[in-house]
C-alpha cells in the first residue's frame, strides 16, 4: 500500500530540476517513480494475473518505501528534539485516512445498492475491519488465498496492506525512541538505530520464512511476517548516505539492477510461489537498490525515465489509484450483472484513474494543506485530528457492522424454514427430483437453504473441529454412525471429501456402520501433494496415510477438488495411486468419490449470490465446462481393488448442471455442495456403493 506523497508534484520537471526539487525537500523523483512502478504492477496483476503472475510484489515495494520515509520522518525530529508521538500520528492520519475513508464509504454504499444480501455479512465485516485497520488479521484468520480470487472476495481485500502499514506506524516510533536512547549513550546515532532495527529485521525475516512454510495463506497477511520489509527501508535510510559517494556509473548499474529484480519477481513469481518468505527478498532488494541509487547522472541511467512526467504523475496519485481500483473491479460485476472479462477489468482500472486524480486533487491535497503550520491553530490541534479520525472510522465501521446484523434475523428465519422442510421433505426434494419423472422443472417458490444461509450450510462450519486447518499436522478423527458398528469405514481428504460426510453418515447410520473422518481444508490425501500446499498440509497428509494404513478399516472413502494443481505430468494420478495403495495395506478397500462440477469454471463465482440476484435458471452451467477431468478416475483404474462412485448424473442432466435441483440449492462457497443437497443424495450414494463394491455385510 503506497504511503501518499506530499502535495508538491514533480511531474513536468527536467532531470536537473528534479534534483533541485529533491534537494529542497520535495518528494524525491526516484521515490515517485518507484511508487508508479509498484502501483502499476498491482493493477496489472489484478487485471491480468496470468500475464503478470507476480505483480503482487508491488505491495512489497511500497512497504520498503514506507519504511524508508517513515524512519526519516521520525529520526530527524528525534535528533532535533522536536519529535512528538501525537504530532506523528496526527500527520499520518491526515495523509492516509481522508482518502481511505472516502473509498470505504463509497464501497459501503455500492455494496448496499448492488451486492446480493447473502454477501452483506462477508463484505460488511471486511469493510469494518478495513476501517479499523485490522483487515490483514481478519484475512489471515480466514486463511484467505490473496492470489486466488473467490466468489466472496471482498471489494476492500486490498486494504490488508494499509492495515499492515498502520500497525507498522504504531510500533515504529517506540522502536526508534529506543534507538535514540541508545544513541545518547553511544554518540553514534546511525549505529545505535541500526542496533535496534537490524535484529528486528532478522527476527521478522526468520519468522516470515517459517510461517510461510507452515501456513502460507495466513503468513501472507500478518504484520510480523512483513515487518522486515519496512525495516529494510528504515535500515537503508540510515546508511543511504554512503551510496551517495559511489560513482554515477555504479549507482546507475545498481538502479537498473534493482528494477530488474522487481521485474524478475513480477514475471517469475506466481500463486505457487511461497510468499513472503525468502522470495520476498527479491523485490525488497530491488526496491532498496533503486532507492539507494537515487538519481545517477550517467547518461545511460534510468533517471530520465524516472523523471518522465507521466511516471511522476502516476506516482503522485499512486495511493488513491491503489485505493480505488480494486473496489471497482469487484463491484462492477454486480452493477452490470455479469462477470468482468479482461476488457471489463481494464475499463474498471481506467475508471479508477480519474477517481484517483479527483481524490488526490480535492481530498488529499486540501486536507494536507489545511494541516500545514500556516493554516491556523484549529486544524493543527492533535485533539481535533483525533476526533475527526475517530468519527470517520465510526461512521464507516458502524454501518458496515450493521450490514451483518441487518440480515441476521432473516438468516435465523431461513434456518428455521430449512429445518422444517428437512424434517419432512416433499417427494421431489433435492436429488429425488432427478429420478422421479413426475417432478416438474418449474420455478421454485422457495429455495433451501435460502441463499442468505447458503454458504453456512457447510460441514466444516457445522462440525467445527472435524475439518481442520491452520498448523494442524496430525490426523484428527471424528466418529459418526454406529459407535460399535462392525463395518468400519473412513472418509479422508480435503473439503471436497468433507462435503460427502452428510450423505455417507446417513448411509452409515442406516446400515449400522461406524464412520471415522480425517479431513483438512485444501489437503487432498495423496503421496504427491499439490504444488502450493504448506508444510503443515504435507505433514498432515502423511500422518493420515500412516494412520489409516495402521487401522482396521473395511473401506476408505476419499475425494478431492478436481481443479487442484499437481506437479509432474500425470496430473496427480500417481500420488493418489501411491497413497491409496499404502492405505489399503491393512486390507481396506479404497472407494473414490468422483468430484462434482465446478460452477466457477463457467463464470458463476457464487451460486447463492447468483440465485439471489438473478434466478435459479440463470445460474446453471454447461456440463462440458464445469465438470472438470478428475484424476481420481484414472487413479482407480491403476489401483488394484479400488472402486469409483460417480454420481454426476445427480448434478448434471442433458448437458446442464443446475444451480437448484428439487428446490434445493446445490452449491455454496465456489463449488462446494451444500449439506442439504448432500443429505438428499444419501439413497443414491448407498445404491452406488453397492454397485461399485457389492453389497456390504454388517457381519
Please describe the structure with a list of short key phrases separated by commas or semicolons.
two-stranded antiparallel ribbon; 29 helices; 58% helix; seven-stranded mixed beta sheet; globular; alpha/beta; 699 residues
Show the helix and strand layout:
Layout: H1 15-23, H2 29-47, H3 58-80, H4 85-114, H5 120-131, H6 135-141, H7 159-186, H8 189-214, H9 216-219, H10 227-243, H11 248-268, H12 281-293, H13 303-306, H14 309-316, H15 318-336, H16 342-370, H17 377-380, H18 382-423, H19 432-435, H20 459-462, E1 467-468, E2 478-481, E3 488-493, H21 495-498, H22 501-511, E4 514-520, H23 535-550, E5 555-559, H24 573-583, E6 589-593, H25 607-613, E7 621-622, H26 623-626, H27 631-638, E8 643-645, E9 656-657, E10 660-661, E11 664-665, E12 667-668, E13 672-673, H28 675-680, H29 682-693
Parallel strand pairs: 1-4, 3-4, 3-5, 5-6, 6-8
Antiparallel strand pairs: 2-4, 7-9, 10-11, 12-13
Helix pairs in contact: 2-3, 2-14, 2-15, 3-7, 3-10, 3-12, 4-5, 4-15, 4-16, 4-18, 5-6, 5-18, 6-7, 7-8, 8-10, 10-12, 11-12, 15-16, 22-29, 23-24, 24-27
Overall, the morphology is globular
What does the average pLDDT come to?
Answer: 87
- Return Rg in Å: 28 Å
Q: State which percent range the strand residues make up.
A: 5-15%
Explain this structure.
There is one protein chain. With 699 residues, the chain is α/β, with parallel strands linked by helices. The strands form four sheets. Strands 1, 2, 3, 4, 5, 6 and 8 form a seven-stranded mixed β-sheet that branches. Helix 24 (573-583) links the parallel strand 5 (555-559) and strand 6. Helix 4 packs antiparallel against helix 16 (342-370), helix 7 packs antiparallel against helix 8 and helix 24 (573-583) crosses helix 27. The longest helix has 42 residues, at 382-423. The model is unreliable at 4-14, 20-25 and 145-151 (pLDDT under 50).
